[in-house]
Amino acid sequence: MSEKGIHSMKKLYMARESSEAEMLKGLMEQQGIECSIRNETMLDAIGPLVFCYPEVWILRDEDYAAASQVMEDWRATPSGGKQAWTCPECGEEISGQFDSCWRCAGHEPAVAESLSDHEDT
Q: What is residue 101's predicted lDDT score, i.e. its pLDDT?
């Protein structure tokens, strides 16, 4: 039992990599759900050991059910709902969750078009 004002954290999700944990944390924050990431730098420091993968923890017990729903919706939507795309600069196939190419920093066509529209004004 937790005392008034003291909250017990609950682990929601163990990610395969830090970027995945950060993405889920961002979704939680958009919904007003306070959370934190544990083991975020451990994966980079000592390599992919099971016990040190990044974990998303929910800070308030009362948010856990809503956080679980957000997580399930996120997991059910491949790549955050966006399709994979091919970089127009180098031809690399990029996962839909990313707006720029990891290889050459080229932008997804829709993002590149938006950026050029802003440059013209």
A: 84
